[in-house]
Amino acid sequence: MAPLNNTPGTAHVAGRSIPTGLYIDGSWWGSEQTIPVTNPATGEQFAEVSDGGAAEALTALTAANNASDMWRHWAPRMRADLFHKAHGMLMARKDEFADVMTTESGKPRSEAAGEFALSAGFFLWYAEQIAHLHGTYQHGSPGGYRVIETHQPVGPSFLVTPWNFPLLMAARKAGAALAAGCTVVMKSAKETPLTAALFVDTLAQAGFPAGVVNLVHTSNSAEFSQAIMSDSRLKKVSFTGSSPVGTQLLKQAADYIINPSMELGGDGPFIVLDDADVDLAVREAVVCKFRNAGQACVAANRIILHRAIAEEFTEKFIAETKKLKVGDGFDPDVSVGPIITKRQLDRVGGLVESFSGAGGTLLHGGSVIDREGFFFEPTIFRFDQLDHAFCNDELFAPIAALYTVDSVEEALRYANDTNYGLSAYVFTADLSRAVTVSERLDFGMVGVNRGIMADPAAPFGGIKESGLGREGGHDGVYEFLERKYIALTINETVGLEG
Ligand code: NAD
User: Fold this and answer.
1) Global confidence as pTM
2) What is the per-residue pLDDT across 424-451, written as a single tens digit (0 to 9) for each?
3) Which of 407, 394, 475 is nearest to 437 (CA)?
4) Are 432 and 327 in contact, with CB atoms under 8 Å apart?
5) Atom 12 of ligand 1 has which residue's CA nearest to it?
């Protein structure tokens, strides 16, 4: 890799300029090698960003490490004020963010606007938490000393995010880390580097000091992470992405006992019981399945229907799915955008073949759309027998698979028959059933009569192979804080004489 230069470029998206360099130690840097950025709605390259490798990983880590002592000692109120200023500046750029996200990820403009609002909400949530981080004080068990528990920033953190929610993942992670007083090296997803650049550019303009936030793009994530994860100055890795890459990072983290947080894949079972409001279940299933063209970790992967409502649900679900318009996300009537890359489009086509081969009946869709870009029809399959072969396969595609069960027990058994444990959904009109079923679902999150549940106030995350730790909620910021116990000896017999 050639050395960085001080002539970083800019990309022009929907009339806006976005830095395309690497942001390290308070400056944007260009590199000789670049990574193309493609609009999945057209299949055409529209920009290129600088490409960092192992050397840049370590340069960014050095910057984060040098700034660490300064940033961790900023008074909470000062840090919170800076967050509030940055939040205001993010809000002022909301259209810019939505345009960039739609251009590089393909998601419909309305979904991009929704993602922006949620991301800004997370950032605000962390801003409000900064001045409220707590400690405890208590008497030591045998007396004679006091137990003080406080929290300290973990230290320089490596943040890795995926392309499917490019702003939400960056804001949710970096917001928590920075609020906790950690400095960060962010690695963008190469499909969506400009959203990350816009986010970091906004933080820089708000006044985050040099070295506190660093952003690197790379075409070689494996080499990049190997370099940074083998350096003992790194104290934390927070990753959102697929379970296989999460496993790899956990193995690397083991060598230096680096503190890990993992938000990994999911297999969202979506259960509709016999007493459910079917119209509501259909509406929520359409969003839960086809939002972001099915490319979501919390998407409905297996739709599990009680036999009593299966036919009605299926008819209505097909009818609603037929109404979805597929196309370029800038068209306001479009509700399903493209698949992210040609490679992923081919994978989605392969899934249709696997489903057909496994006895699934194609009820709707099933084909690549013959136009420029990477579009696939919203697709529905019905399986007449519970198929266990796909329980551990994250579809990540606009393909709905419907299964029928005869009892709540059978629904639960089938739903839990997966290595994943991120999100599950249950639709029922009975409160007791809702609680019992929710408690017996082996998942980190359960939506009751709703298909979307991300919220800054809620702990987002999974169990089993879906991850370790939580983002957001009251505890998310503590992923980036370590407990410190101070045992304070006192002589209880003195001090009261005066
Ligand atoms: P991915 O695992 O291929 O990539 C995620 C990120 O990891 C990208 O930035 C990528 O460049 C990077 N990466 C790839 N190989 C790496 C390596 N060897 N070392 C370090 N980094 C590496 O996943 P993806 O296709 O970008 O995203 C889809 C996956 O993300 C799905 O499995 C989805 O369920 C998951 N996801 C999970 C959540 C959650 O909160 N649990 C949210 C969104 C997406």
Assistant:
1) 0.96
2) 999 999 999 999 999 999 999 999 999 9
3) 407
4) no
5) 221
- The pLDDT mean for the chain works out to 96
Partners of 368 in beta bridges: 376
Beta carbons of 352 and 346 less than 8 angstroms apart: no
Out of 297, 419, 422, 466, give the residue to mutate to test ligand 1, the one with the largest number of ligand atoms within 8 Å of its CB: 297
Per the listing, tokens 């793009």 go with: 217
Domains and CATH numbers, the chain: 10-264+462-485 (3.40.605.10), 268-448 (3.40.309.10)
Out of 297, 394, 465, 479, which one is annotated catalytic? Answer: 297
| 288 included as an active-site residue | no
151 forms beta bridges with 483
- Ligand 1: atom nearest CA of 222 is 18
DSSP codes of every residue in 207-260: TPPTTTEEEE--S-HHHHHHHHHT-TT--EEEEES-HHHHHHHHHHHHHHT-EE
Alpha-carbon distance values, 476 to 211, 285, 469 (Å): 23, 28, 8
Model confidence pLDDT, tens digit, residues 210-250: 999 999 999 999 999 999 999 999 999 999 999 999 999 99
For the stretch 387-404, pLDDT in tens is 777 788 899 999 999 999
State the distance from the centre of ligand 1 to the C-alpha of 370, rounded, in angstroms: 28
Assess whether 284 carries a catalytic annotation: no
Residues with CB under 6 A from ligand 1: 160-165, 187, 189-190, 221-222, 225, 240-242, 245, 248-249, 263-266, 297, 394, 396, 422, 462, 467
- Catalytic residue among 263, 284, 377, 394, which? 263
